[in-house]
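My current task is to audit a protein record that another person submitted. What it holds is a sequence and that sequence's fold in token form. Thanks in advance; the entry in question is below.
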Amino acid sequence: MNATPADAPVAETAGERTGGCLCGHIRFTTRGPAVFAHTCACGHCQKLGGAPLMWWVGFETVTWTGESEPTWYETFECEAKRGFCPTCGSRVAAIDSDIPEIGINVTALDDTSGPDLVPIHASFRDNAVHWLRPVPETEHSTAG
């Protein structure tokens, strides 16, 4: 995940959301607004997700509520790690040293329909597959 721009839109609501892995061993509750919903087509996300891209969003608080917590794989030493279920393999979370929020793979949420989960940015556009329509850039920017 890329760093969240300081002027990226944040959802107005700060409610709770729940989610988990495919087998149900990992469950979580998020609190706070969804921050910087985006897709990522970097090589790591493609290999970790087994797909052309992954869909991420940040939350200030994530509480692990299931039978177990994610197993963490360090994708970039001392910079980034990705959390997954060791039983079913579902990718559920990310922690990046330069981002205060915990990244959640949006598809791990029980309800992915919130308007604040619609991607506002696409990271690593140059690495995206040519046949998938790109996410329109809708994040606000102060750059000219």
Summary: Confidence is low (pLDDT under 50) at residues 1-13. The beta strands are 16-20, 27-31, 35-40, 54-59, 61-64, 71-76, 80-84, 91-96, 102-105, 121-123. The chain is about 5% helix and 35% strand. The helical segments are 43-49.
